[in-house]
Amino acid sequence: MTDQEKIIRLKEIYQEFLIELNALKEKANAQRLAKIKVIEKQKIEQILDKIHKEL
User: Fold this and answer.
1) Residues near 1 by Cβ (< 8 Å), separated by ≥ 6?
2) For the segment 16-31, what is each residue's pLDDT rounded down to a tens digit?
3) DSSP secondary structure string, 1-55?
């Protein structure tokens, strides 16, 4: 394998790495957003319960 072929192969491997890294970031972000929505829902329910008890 020539140096040029090695460079091309390294670029391909790096591109694959970047694609996988971005996929992991997207997955982590989706999980984070889902967790935030669950927490928001819990807080809203707590507020509604408090309002209900006050009335």
Assistant:
1) 9
2) 999 999 999 999 999 9
3) --HHHHHHHHHHHHHHHHHHHHHHHHHHHHHHHHHHHHHHHHHHHHHHHHHHHH-
The percent of residues above 70 in pLDDT, for the chain, comes to 100
Cβ-proximal residues to 9 (8 Å cutoff; 6+ apart), any chain:
1
- Tell me phi and psi for residue 6, to 5 degrees: -65, -40
Residue-number span of the structural domain to which 3 is assigned: 1-55
The pTM of this model reads 0.66
Q: Count of domains in the chain?
A: 1
